[in-house]
Design a protein that fits this description.
Layout lengths: L4 H26 L4 H11 L1 H4 L8 H7 L1 H12 L3 H10 L11 H18 L1 H23 L16 H23 L7 H17 L5 H15 L1
């Protein structure tokens, strides 16, 4: 497979951006910020990478670029210097009592699902990728702020009504806007369908335990988008 010059440039920019991405996360953790809040903040920044997806000449290259996201984690697991330890603290290690999977593994799986959908149907995957970066992070921020009505869910005690409504509405608008971008049709014509997608993601987010609810929500939403 021949890679165009434009795609090579985008890969180079992604590599540089990813290095800065992890460096900034380590910097924030060293400054004493909570690792979970750092992760949420940094995931929202991944939307910058998602916005470059339509610029690729070959969507397969976007899928292959995901390999770059694995390298920093492998580095952190193999090394034991200060940078690697803070990298693990931010993206891999969790307190044993949480019984949750490694955060970066969940993020990579979620990104893989969105990129795979983009590879198959760009107008669907693009919206789902942005929803993952922006809507999911926004909902989690609201839940962690401990404001609003808690839903009292067994698997996710911190989740709030405001968080779920934010996730549903942002996902609906973003996915509808992405469809408008590709089909040149007003986003309101897609809103009912994308609202259903947001509801599906919200339900899975509520019912599945923290950690696995992230990739499973993306999977459920991708299937719903494809069927609708």
């Amino acid at each position: 497979m021949l890679i165009s010059h434009g795609d090579i440039l985008l890969i180079a920019l992604t590599t540089i951006g990813l290095f800065q991405f992890f460096w900034l996360s380590v910097f924030l953790i060293r400054k004493g910020f909570n690792p979970s809040l750092v992760r949420l903040s940094m995931v929202s920044l991944l939307s910058i990478w998602v916005l470059t997806w339509p610029a690729y000449d070959d969507t397969t290259v976007v899928l292959a670029t995901l390999f770059l996201f694995v390298l920093p984690v492998l580095f952190a697991l193999q090394k034991n210097n200060a940078f690697a330890r803070h990298l693990r603290l931010g993206w891999h290690d969790l307190p044993p009592k949480t019984k949750q999977p490694a955060p970066w593994l969940m993020i990579i799986i979620s990104l893989f699902i969105t990129v795979e959908l983009f590879h198959t149907a760009p107008e669907l995957g693009f919206g789902l990728g942005l929803s993952f970066c922006l809507a999911w992070s926004a909902a989690e921020f609201i839940d962690k702020s401990r404001r609003g009505v808690r839903l009292g869910l067994t698997q996710n005690l911190q989740q709030t009504l405001a968080g779920h409504l934010t996730f549903i509405m942002l996902t609906s608008f973003i996915c509808a806007w992405a469809l408008q971008l590709y089909h040149n049709t007003h986003w309101l014509q897609f809103f009912v369908a994308t609202l259903i997608v947001g509801l599906v993601g919200s339900i899975i987010r509520a019912l599945i335990a923290t950690g696995w609810n992230m990739p499973l929500s993306m999977l459920g939403m991708s299937i719903t988008l494809w069927l609708l």
